What we know:
The protein is of the alpha+beta class. The protein has helices at 6-9, 27-40, 110-113, 119-122, 201-207; strands spanning 43-52, 57-65, 69-74, 80-85, 88-93, 98-103, 123-125, 133-139, 148-155, 163-171, 177-187. Strands 6-5-4-3-2-1-11-10-9-8-7 form an eleven-stranded antiparallel β-sheet. Strand 8 (133-139) and strand 9 form a beta hairpin. The longest helix has 14 residues, at 27-40. The chain starts with 5 loop residues before the first helix and ends with a helix.
Amino acid sequence: MLKYGFALIAAPLALTASLPATAQQSPTDNLGKISTHLRSMSTMTANFSQTDRGGQLLTGTLIIKQPGKIRFQYQKEANLLIVGDGKALTLIDYDVNQVQRWPISNSPLAALLNPERDLSKYGKIVPTRNPQVLSVEVRDPKRPEYGIITMVFSKKTGAPGGLRLDGWVSLDSKNNRTSIRLSNQKFGVPVSNRSFNWDDPRRKSRAKR
């Protein structure tokens, strides 16, 4: 098994999403705002920090290009890469030359990477104390094995749809929990499709035999 990041793409974010509510708008309105943001966000780059259930902290850079493309470039010490090419998610562990791949639709990240997904069917607004913060929990009740993702957004003038994605928590079917916090978010920046290429370590491994 890949040693890092598995639960990330396999669930409530420890920001302000789990605090008592002071609801300002209906859940339907807020789901609509989040859907508008996801459909308006063409590209995003950010720094991220990832914390797993054991408290291990990893950092790196994140690139998103809609629809479906994502890249988690981890710090050099982790020697790990996660890439989504629009159809599938791939985890590459360069320390052990392992590659794991599965459809984006089978992952909680589908809620983020498929802007056409109907959040009214799968999403539930999580009350927050801060009226400037929106949080949505997304799960497919018919597919519990796909896990849960809870995304947190801040209202931000000038950001797509007036919202900024601040992070999320993913929870897989084995209760592996991974929190992602974002910083230095930039929207609409040029992103080449080459950003989602990756080197297959298995080729080098076979070449050495």
